[in-house]
Amino acid sequence: MTSTAVSRRDRPLVNFRDEEESRPDEQVPTGSERDRGRSSRTSPLLALLAVLVLVLLALAAIFLFRSFGESISGTSVARDSIDSAGPEPHVRLTNAAGQVRIEGIGGSKSVEYEATRYAMAADPATAKQRASEVPVDISREDSQIVIETDGGEDTGADYTLGVPAGGSVEVESEEGDVEVSGLTGNVTVAAEAGDVTVREVGGNINVEAPRGDVRIGDVNTDTGSADLEVGSGDLSLDDLILGTLEASVEAGDVTLLGRFSGGGRVSVQTGDIIARLPPEDTRDLILQTRVGSVLREPPGGDANEQGPEKHKQQGS
């Protein structure tokens, strides 16, 4: 009987290792291919990050544009002449913010003024329009002339006035320096924040300056007076001929120079007083400071040779 069964030895052997090696398409990825795979996955994240950065830069640019745009200043000039109705007008100027300069003009019969108005806005055209709308209100009754300006927030006006030399002036300023010169009449200045300079005048002087330096010079009025109140700031007095001087300073130094004729008192709460005057000039002038020192020194002299007096004075 013939057997059809195939013996175990005659069965073909299957080589699994050769089968695996015979797959040519399956290759192990190289290092560069792995890097390309990672970069393809991270590229969307980089693109998203770039978009976010651009958005932030755009927002910052818009914010800066608006911030700087609001600080653009525009100006508009108004000038005119007002009949003074005589050689001795009284001019009162009230200004919210801005510089004020008043000068006495000999032989003049009118008050000349120039107001440089300014305003802030987001663009130059709007700023100039706002500046042109800052009011310059003028009224006159006989020889009394009143000029007022208050345009509101972010506006102001710089004034230059030419006044007949025999006139008197009164200035009220909320913010800005004030300078008055060349008048024989009385001068009154109230400046909330700003320096005050009064020189070459021949009438009474009244100054209130809570925040700012005050300079008074070349005053010639034998019977006139000077009443000065300084908050935080220095006081300089140069060549004064007057009847009485009353000066008080809360925090600041006082300097007296040149010559002084008259009597009165200079009082300082916190600060020094330096008097570079001939000794006879201060015979009727009281100098005192609560916290500070008083230095008396001859003008143009050598302090070491002359031996100036330096007194620590406490109390009033």
Report on this model:
With 316 residues, the protein is of the alpha/beta class. It has a domain at 195-316. It contains four helices and 20 strands. The chain has a 20-stranded mixed β-sheet that branches. It is flat.
Output mean pLDDT. Answer: 83
Tally of separate helices: 4
Count every beta strand, where a strand is a DSSP E run of 2 or more residues. 20
Low-confidence stretches: 1-11, 13-24, 303-316
Please indicate the percent range of residues in DSSP E strands (runs of 2 or more). Answer: over 45%
Spatial separation of the terminal alpha carbons: 150 Å
Largest sheet: 20 strands, mixed
Briefly note the structural class of the backbone.
alpha/beta
Shape: flat
Order of helices and strands: HHEEEEHEEEEEEEEEEEEEEEHE
Q: Give the helix proportion (percent range).
A: 10-25%
Radius of gyration over C-alpha positions, nearest whole angstrom: 42 Å
List the keywords.
flat, alpha/beta, 20-stranded mixed sheet, 316 residues
Can you lay out the helices and strands and say which pair or pack?
Layout lengths: L15 H6 L9 H39 L2 E12 L6 E8 L2 E6 L4 E12 L2 H9 L4 E5 L2 E6 L5 E10 L3 E8 L2 E4 L5 E5 L4 E6 L3 E7 L2 E7 L4 E8 L2 E17 L2 E17 L2 E3 L9 E7 L1 E4 L6 H4 L2 E4 L4
Parallel strand pairs: 2-6, 2-8, 3-7, 3-9, 8-10, 9-11, 10-12, 11-13, 12-14, 13-15, 14-15, 15-16, 16-17, 16-18, 17-19
Antiparallel strand pairs: 1-4, 4-7, 5-6, 19-20
